[in-house]
């Protein structure tokens, strides 16, 4: 996405170095918070935390804090650890639900130690996150509780089809906002809040975080079909093969064009036959739903950037604007 050592482009050299230095401290803190009383607990909890990852959520906490008068407040770094511990905890549970064997190129917790240990390791990290949140005060506890509720509810609703009369696309977008957008929104909110940013800036950055976080997932949906190779990090058409509803698929399924009859017969079910999978992939790549999906993500990025008008012009706002653009147009 960027040649920067950070997960988003930061043009201002001084700001970039400040964030790099603080992220290095966050790494040390995260490693410490993963330690349990028993060596085995520490090993299991550290496994996915140290397997890589962009650390976008804690970075967003630090960057959003730059919009306030006290970006170096100790609470900011604590909050950065809270959101990453919560995120990594959720990955252990995700991998159990998905029966996944690999995460970030490493064996998943469930593949290495079994489902029970993976679930309990996720719970351990959620506990660590809750301990730190308590140090941030009752408002932070309430925000974290509401975020966790939305995240889990999004995960549950992902397994449930839309109800009678419910728009499948609206259902899916709500799932994405809960499962992915909610924690990124809280990342931006915490950073701005604990640095003393103005209330309108806190709200603007929180909404920005949810939009951009959701857009990142929606771009993944597009890349699953559009990528010609596994450069995007996974085999093209993986979601399509598994019958997973995604943004372009749901938009294609809304078509009333008789010429889409064959495509519609293929979508929405697992495509275990290689020939059918290849056919569906080719039909989707040529379908207007792909441009429709891209337009939707671009519009969301524009909406996120508009919110940033609440911030003073400068390198922080520029970095956040650039990131919204990159999320909307990325190719990997």
Tag the structure with descriptive keywords:
332 residues, transferase, heptaprenyl diphosphate synthase activity, globular, two-stranded antiparallel ribbon, Heptaprenyl diphosphate synthase, mainly alpha, metal ion binding, EC 2.5.1.30
Chain-wise SSE layout:
Elements: H1 13-33, H2 39-49, H3 56-65, H4 74-98, E1 102-103, E2 106-107, H5 109-113, H6 115-135, H7 138-158, H8 168-194, H9 199-226, H10 238-242, H11 247-253, H12 261-266, H13 274-286, H14 288-307, H15 315-329
Antiparallel strand pairs: 1-2
Keywords: Magnesium, Metal-binding, Transferase
GO molecular function: heptaprenyl diphosphate synthase activity; metal ion binding
Cofactor: Mg(2+)
Any overview of this molecule?
The chain has 332 residues and is mostly helical. 71% of the residues lie in helices and 1% in strands. The chain has helices at residues 13-33, 39-49, 56-65, 74-98, 109-113, 115-135, 138-158, 168-194, 199-226, 238-242, 247-253, 261-266, 274-286, 288-307, 315-329, and strands at residues 102-103, 106-107. A two-stranded antiparallel sheet has the order 1-2. Helix 3 packs antiparallel against helix 4 (74-98).
């Amino acid at each position: 996405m960027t040649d920067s050592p950070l997960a988003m482009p930061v043009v201002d050299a001084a700001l970039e170095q400040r964030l790099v230095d603080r992220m290095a401290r966050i790494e040390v803190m995260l490693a410490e918070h993963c330690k349990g009383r028993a060596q085995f607990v520490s090993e299991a909890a550290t496994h996915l935390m140290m397997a890589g990852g962009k650390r976008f959520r804690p970075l967003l906490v630090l960057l959003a804090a730059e919009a306030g008068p006290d970006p170096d407040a100790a609470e900011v770094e604590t909050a950065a650890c809270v959101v990453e511990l919560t995120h990594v905890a959720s990955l252990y549970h995700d991998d159990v639900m998905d029966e996944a064997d690999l995460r970030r190129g490493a064996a998943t917790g469930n593949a290495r130690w079994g489902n029970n240990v993976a679930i309990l390791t996720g719970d351990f990290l959620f506990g660590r996150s809750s301990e730190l949140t308590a140090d941030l005060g009752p408002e932070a506890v309430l925000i974290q509780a509401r975020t966790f509720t939305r995240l889990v509810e999004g995960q549950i609703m992902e397994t449930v089809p839309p109800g009678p009369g419910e728009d499948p696309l609206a259902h899916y977008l709500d799932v994405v906002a809960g499962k992915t957008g909610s924690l990124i929104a809280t990342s931006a909110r915490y950073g701005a809040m604990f640095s003393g940013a103005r209330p309108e800036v806190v709200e603007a950055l929180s909404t920005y975080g949810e939009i951009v976080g959701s857009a990142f997932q929606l771009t993944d949906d597009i890349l699953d079909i559009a990528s010609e190779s596994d450069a995007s990090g996974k085999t093209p058409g993986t979601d399509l093969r598994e019958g997973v509803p995604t943004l372009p698929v749901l938009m294609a399924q809304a078509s009333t064009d008789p010429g889409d009859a064959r495509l519609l017969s293929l979508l929405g079910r697992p495509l275990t036959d290689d020939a059918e999978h290849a056919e569906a992939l080719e039909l989707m790549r040529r379908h207007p739903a792909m441009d429709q999906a891209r337009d939707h993500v671009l519009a969301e990025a524009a909406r996120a950037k508009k919110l940033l008008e609440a911030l003073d012009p400068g390198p922080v706002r520029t970095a956040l604007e650039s990131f919204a653009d990159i999320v909307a147009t990325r190719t990997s």
